[in-house]
Specification:
108 residues, mainly alpha, 5 helices, 2 strands
Amino acid sequence: APLAVVDLLTHEADLRHALGLPADLPDDALAWAADLMLGGFHARVAVAGLPPVSVEASDFEVFRGRLGRRTVDEVCAYDWSADPLPYLDTWFVFGRATASLGETTSAA
C-alpha cells in the first residue's frame, strides 16, 4: 500500500508539472514519502556494502530525486556527508533524468 501512495503522489507531481503548475503536494505527504525514500536508500546502501552516508535535501527533492525526476548534477548538489558518486546507483530507483525538469513548488 505505501508504494501505491508514492506512485500516486509521483504522478500527481508529474501531471502538475506537465500542466505548468507548481507541484504543491501536501507537506505531510511529502514528509512521509521522503522518509520512506530515505529509508529505502539507506537499506540499499547497506546491501551494496557502502559506508553509511547522510543526505540533506528538502522532502520534495528527496522524493523527486529518488524517483528519477532529477539529473545526476542536481542530486550531487544535495548536501551529502561524503562524495555522492559511489552512491548514485543506490540513490536512483527508476534511472536518472537526462535534463532538468525545472520544477517549482509554491514554496520555491
